[in-house]
Amino acid sequence: MSSWTRGIRGDSGFTLVELLITVSIIGILSVIAIPQFNSYRQRVYDTTAKSDMTQFRNAVINAGSGSSWSTWQTGPAQHSRFSDVKISNGVKMLTVSWNIGGAYVFYAYTCHPNGKMGYFMYVPYGGTDPFAGWGWAPNRIEESTVYYLAFC
Known about the structure:
The chain is an alpha+beta fold.
């Protein structure tokens, strides 16, 4: 009998050992890949929140004025005061403008609930920096898990 006729009758196929090895290799690869994928997703969420913060910083620097107001915004949305600032899906943004003894400053906090970083920055405008000498750098976006825990 030829090998061709033996294959038609169903005498060939995968053995149990071959199937177990294949399943175990797939299991090992998934154990390695899933945490990497989740880490990648968190980085994407954090990058999205930071990008929204950068848009807000640029809009504030270009505007250079404001009044006292405070608002939480959750994306997807446009910022209520700066229409060119788009808040991405899921990103939370808190923006505040204060007059501190004649010195004006915008604060902003952003984070994404599925990320692990929060972002803070302040932009002084109107001539003086109310936080000069405090060690904070104006217009620089600071990142910390503390901001995430406090605001997300």
